[in-house]
Write a structure and sequence with these properties.
- This protein is an alpha+beta fold.
- The longest helix has 24 residues.
- The relative contact order is 0.17.
- The chain contains 5 helices and 17 strands.
- Belongs to the peptidase M24A family. Methionine aminopeptidase type 1 subfamily.
Length: about 290
């Protein structure tokens, strides 16, 4: 028995076929992966996500104003919790599939999902990723930043942090209306590998806005023209995780929660993340 491929896109009933409909159906009819109509945000949803992104940015600003040598990653979690309480929003990571804290704090070789702890004291020269997602009135903002503790580190770590940020920026430049997720990943991988860095493949960016994690998966490696078609109105993160050595990772066996991801050779890792809105001309940053 032959099954026809299920169509993802549907036109709005009772109205003319729009230019958006025509462009999406063009690619769908050629076998490409396309979004659902529900993945294209309404103007009201976009404003809600934009406000959540603004609050999320404010939370990371509060961390940036306070982070310093001698503080603990638990102190960072306390800052984020207080910010959310003061601004009547919710830290989305808290209790998500057993994650015990409000924010992810990943130091040096921890790639992502580091759990804040009182015993994790930040030292001058550490590099730390702080990854925050919050929801406000049912809308979500998500972003992460790298911090060099004390402002100085080794030249090798400094370059890694810089190149990881360049990868995010280059990925955003590659994100054009009616491009494909693979266009973003290809641009990021090409830049990272100039420095012989590994681009993590087991974790990726994602749709965000009406939930913390939605379609599509936004991989940070690959080939042009692959993955889902990106159209105006979609909201998603780009968040390349760049390892100084291998792209491979493992879960820390000493983490009782099973969350902390470590680089495969335990060399340092860096990550930057923004939430983006695809527009008719390119992407707009909603949370950074």
């Amino acid at each position: 028995m032959v099954f026809k491929k299920k169509k993802r896109w549907h036109c709005l009933p009772g109205g003319p076929i729009s230019e958006l409909d025509k462009k999406v159906m063009y690619w769908e009819n050629r076998g490409k992966e396309v979004p659902t109509r529900e993945m294209v945000r309404t103007p009201e949803q976009i404003e809600g996500i934009r406000l959540a992104g603004k609050l999320n940015t404010g939370c990371l600003d509060a961390v940036e104003a306070a982070i310093r040598p001698g503080m603990t990653t638990q102190d960072i979690d306390d800052i984020c919790m207080k910010y959310c309480e003061d601004n009547h929003c919710h830290p989305s990571c808290l209790n998500f599939e057993g994650f015990p804290k409000s924010v992810c704090t990943s130091i040096n070789e921890v790639v992502c999902h580091g759990i804040p702890k009182k015993e994790d004291v930040l030292k001058e020269g550490d590099i730390v990723n702080v990854d925050m997602t919050l929801d406000f009135n049912g809308y979500y903002g998500d972003a992460s930043r790298m911090f060099i503790i004390g402002g100085k580190t080794t030249p090798e770590k400094e370059q890694l942090v810089r190149v990881a940020k360049e990868c995010l920026e280059i990925g955003a430049e590659a994100a054009k209306p009616y491009c494909f997720v693979g266009d973003i990943g290809h641009a990021i991988q090409k830049h990272a590998e100039k420095y012989h860095y590994g681009v993590v493949r087991d974790l990726c960016g994602h749709g965000v806005g009406m939930a913390m994690h939605e379609e599509p998966d936004v991989v940070h490696y690959g080939h042009k023209g692959t993955g889902m078609l990106l159209v105006p109105g979609m909201t998603f993160t780009i968040e390349p995780m760049i390892n100084m050595g291998t792209w491979e990772v493992f879960i820390d066996s000493e983490d009782p929660y099973g969350w902390e991801v470590i680089s495969g050779d335990e060399l340092p890792s860096a990550q930057w993340e923004h939430t983006f809105l695809m527009t008719e001309t390119g992407v707009e940053v909603l949370s950074y």
